[in-house]
Design brief:
alpha/beta, Beta Polymerase, domain 2, two-stranded parallel ribbon, 4 helices, 9 strands, globular
């Protein structure tokens, strides 16, 4: 096993050599390398990061979705849904963060990378379940955290805090049923703010 000192600038150079003009933008912040690629280059870029000698990112540590719709500055690409991968090279002792935006905000879709890293399987199912991002080519893309009858994608910024329906056990029917939401949203103000003399404060 090769042991190298971790120098982010060296990692960036190796990534740039492997990806070339596939890189739309990049940054090094707090010693961490982040690169953005286009959706059309996503799969080939991921494969290059795994196989290029100076990269050798053989492990997918994490894959998650991000909804940029309510970020103050918006997203860097002007698009809503982003997929973020955290990759590790055990052999070269380096890490990189790969970001890609789905090009359709109404029906976000990206190619799967389970053929590159099998660990992507459940991560992609989670991003599909929570954000509604479809991974084309995934062999078992179904919900993994929410229940089978769940409606919508709960990590989207426009998803209501109470959800769309609620479920309960009906003793007469002897089964779980779904029904319209009965919870009323309310804003709770901490007591220390609403009562000026709380705790003897004046």
């Amino acid at each position: 096993m090769t042991t190298l000192s971790v120098v982010p600038e060296d990692t960036l150079k190796a990534v740039q050599a492997a990806l070339g003009d596939k890189i739309k933008s990049f940054k090094v912040v707090f010693g961490e390398v982040t690169v953005w690629v286009a959706a059309t280059d996503y799969h080939s870029a991921a494969l290059a990061l795994r196989d290029a000698p100076g990269c050798s990112f053989e492990q997918l540590i994490d894959l998650c979705g991000v909804d940029y719709s309510e970020y103050l500055d918006g997203s860097p690409q002007g698009l809503r849904f982003c997929v973020v991968l955290h990759l590790l090279s055990v052999n070269l002792n380096q890490r990189v963060r790969l970001k890609v935006f789905a090009t359709d905000d109404l029906a976000p879709m990206l190619p799967t990378v389970i053929d590159i890293w099998s660990a992507a399987n459940w991560f992609e199912r989670e991003a599909f379940d929570l954000f509604g991002i479809v991974f084309d080519g995934h062999t078992d893309l179904r919900r993994i955290l929410t229940d089978y009858g769940f409606i919508g994608h709960p990590f989207r910024k426009d998803f209501p805090r109470t959800g769309h329906v609620e479920m309960r056990y009906d003793s007469e029917l002897g089964r779980i049923i779904y029904q319209p939401i009965t919870i009323e949203e309310r804003e709770t103000t901490p007591r220390v703010i609403r009562e000026s003399n709380y705790g003897g404060l004046q």
